Amino acid sequence: MPSSSNQPGTASSPPPLSPSELEEEQERNTDRKKKRCGITVPSTPASSSAASPSPTINLSREYTLAIQTASYQEIWAKIHHHRGDGGSEADDAEGDGQRFTIAQVLQPDSASVEEILRAAPASRMTRLISNYLKNSENTSLLCLSLQESVARARTLYYPIGELLELIPVCGTSTSFVVDLTPALCNKAFDVFIQFDGIENPFPLSFSSSAEANGSSSNRSNSQFMGMKGSFLELKEQLDARLHKARHKARLLRRTRRASGICLIACTTGITVVGLVLASHIMTALVAGSACILGGSCCNLVAMRGLSDDMDRLDAAARNTYVLNNDLDTIERLVTRLHDTIEDDKKLVRLGVEGGRGQRHPIEHVVQHLRKNHRSVLQQLSDLDEHICLYFASVNRVRSLLLQHIHQPES
């Protein structure tokens, strides 16, 4: 879970930050964290063009707000409570457990989704939403599988962490020398054998070498690609509908202004000739005004309904963009973790091949592992966090899309 703390180094405490300063500090911390994850945070433009229905989104702010929501905390608790110690069950049992958790985490649930889709009119938009919902469920299963991989990776690196705590270090945090006793050298060798014997928890299909080697795990990569493809189609359709809704809103505003002008002109005419044809004109005024006001009321109701629909479309398009960015980040983190673990395993294998009691090769491996250990743990925490962010985002989009087809455009 992300947290930021700043302990003063002097006896006197600095003055407390104002709410705006605190928010800026949180966003700066978030930006630094997102750079580690490889996320590009676009700046929010001062104005958005009318031709672009979905403005550029401040991903840093969206990220900060998302991890503070109750839905994120709830999803985190559900996923991690179900996982427990993780990683020791059979594959079939693990798959059943993932589906059980999906039923708990994904909202709206499958029964509600099927009911709304059955009642929805047949259209390209309905087909795209249905395709998105199916892909989101498949991708959610993959994300739960990746979360299990995070648990197995932590188990993989836990003995290394224990070993590093036992080994004294001479020097600074950036330049240090490992000095092993014979007992620690033997313990390190045992840890290396254990590390070398465990398979890389992360799928090859996300790594840069996947295309060269080819693997049955490419199914996971194709699921991500399928999800991104459905995002592209869906966002294009959402943007087109939002553009159409905004055009309709402009027409309704013009109609309402024209009705007001007509009413003013009618009233002015009555004032000019009122003394001559008072009774006849007053009758016409009442009738004409009733028609105009009636039309204005209808326009007002239509505007309110259209405004609600525009809000849903805009929110769905924005959240689709954020969700797509979450998937990109997850993919980059998985690729990086896979390659990092492979590099560590190659180096550890060299230490194992050197033989027990070979102090210098073992010290070299330990020195490398100590240097990278904190970075690996941070990458695992980042991936864990972004998987939960994915579920929070996918639930928002599912809810908005189902509201849209359940309450179609006015």
UniProtKB/TrEMBL annotation:
<feature type="transmembrane region" description="Helical">
    <location>
        <begin position="258"/>
        <end position="278"/>
    </location>
</feature>
<feature type="compositionally biased region" description="Polar residues">
    <location>
        <begin position="1"/>
        <end position="11"/>
    </location>
</feature>
<dbReference type="InterPro" id="IPR007749">
    <property type="entry name" value="DUF677"/>
</dbReference>
<keyword id="KW-0812">Transmembrane</keyword>
<feature type="compositionally biased region" description="Low complexity">
    <location>
        <begin position="42"/>
        <end position="56"/>
    </location>
</feature>
<comment type="similarity">
    <text>Belongs to the UPF0496 family.</text>
</comment>
<keyword id="KW-0472">Membrane</keyword>
<feature type="region of interest" description="Disordered">
    <location>
        <begin position="1"/>
        <end position="56"/>
    </location>
</feature>
<keyword id="KW-1133">Transmembrane helix</keyword>
<protein>
    <submittedName>
        <fullName>Uncharacterized protein</fullName>
    </submittedName>
</protein>
<dbReference type="GO" id="GO:0016020">
    <property type="term" value="C:membrane"/>
</dbReference>
<feature type="transmembrane region" description="Helical">
    <location>
        <begin position="284"/>
        <end position="302"/>
    </location>
</feature>
